[in-house]
Write a structure and sequence with these properties.
CATH class: Alpha Beta
Number of domains: 1
Distance between the termini: 39 Å
Strand content: 5-15%
Strand order of the largest sheet: 1-9-6-2-5-3-4
Number of helices: 10
Shape: globular
Largest sheet: 7 strands, mixed
Order of helices and strands: HHEEHEHHEHEHHEEHEEH
Low-confidence stretches: 11-17
CATH superfamily: Glycerol-3-phosphate (1)-acyltransferase
Structural class: alpha/beta
Radius of gyration: 19 Å
Number of strands: 9
Length: about 300
């Protein structure tokens, strides 16, 4: 069985990322008017999955960016492990009651990777059933979590993101923070094997503390058809104010790629190999979470 590898934190990662200065106000106004003109005239494109780069760059990412830079103060490590112009499967831990970790990883790869990589997330059916949320998820580049879509995106050279813990990860109680849940049947490994694309383990620290889940109102969850209904120190006690995430300190690390091309597409049908690779990815992420927790000086520092 392949050995798990801890995601390395390189010494040069200690230097903080220097954000690019925002454009002058007149340039922002001109860009905004051009954006409105494109939306009104229909001079923008979406792909077959509904991804809308124009809307993502001018509306969605600017909304998320202040949370990334100022609220969570995200630091990234190991971006050199993410390819600049070829397909790869990024596999990350999932936590936080709401899937904000997926959104912050999207910003990290677009804003801090030298090639400004697009992150094509694979989401659960429930995400796309929620009015407005599902539509915006597709506009940002997400699609249904199925092997067919994952393989097509990987083959086209896209950077695909998967969170194998699913609702078990984001809906776990706070006492189980930073303990990975089961990774399912390893469908993401099969997609990587069939396309010969590398798997990049990703460890995210910080999301566990944004909505500390101290209870689960299961009756309410069943009533609304949800996998869980969280009770946190601020929600539902403070109403809508309780939806504001706590400003925890975030660290996101991308590990060394685990290559799959040498196995060949037929290896996707080998259940033992799929299990071993799935376990290797899971163990790598778990060990790396411990490493990042040691690196973080305080939860809100």
């Amino acid at each position: 069985m392949p050995e798990a590898r801890v995601i390395p934190l390189r010494p040069d990662d200690d230097e903080p990322f220097a954000p690019v200065s925002p454009p002058a106000w007149d340039d922002q106004v001109a860009g905004g008017l051009e954006f409105l003109q494109r939306r009104l005239t229909g001079e923008y494109e979406t792909d077959e999955f509904g991804f809308d780069p124009d809307l993502a760059d001018h509306v969605l990412l600017p909304i998320l960016r202040p949370f990334f830079q100022k609220w969570f103060r995200v630091e990234t490590f190991g971006l050199e492990n993410v390819p600049a112009d070829s397909g790869a499967l990024v596999v990350a831990n999932h936590s936080g009651t709401l899937p904000i970790d997926a959104l912050m990883t999207t910003v990290a790869l677009h804003d801090e990777h030298p090639a400004a990589r697009r992150f094509r997330l694979l989401g659960a059916d429930l995400v796309f059933d929620i009015p407005l949320v599902g539509a915006m998820a597709r506009k940002l580049g997400a699609t249904l979590a199925c092997n067919e879509d994952a393989e097509r995106l990987l083959t086209e050279g896209e950077l695909v993101g998967v969170f194998p813990e699913g609702f078990k990860g984001i809906g776990k109680p706070f006492r189980d923070r930073y303990t990975l849940q089961r990774f399912g049947r390893g469908g993401f490994v099969s997609a990587a094997l069939r396309t010969g694309k590398p798997i990049i383990p990703c460890a995210i620290v910080g999301a566990e503390e944004i909505y500390p889940m101290i209870g689960n109102a299961k009756t309410v969850a069943r009533l609304f058809g949800l996998p869980y209904f969280p009770i946190t120190p601020t929600f539902p006690l403070l109403g809508p104010l309780g939806l504001v995430p706590l400003p925890s300190k975030w660290l996101i690390a991308f590990g060394e790629p685990i290559e799959t091309a040498s196995y060949g597409p037929a290896a996707a049908e080998d259940p033992m190999l799929v299990f071993n690779l799935t376990d290797q990815v899971r163990e790598t992420i778990q060990h790396s979470l411990y490493q990042l927790l040691l690196r973080r000086t305080s939860v809100f520092g």
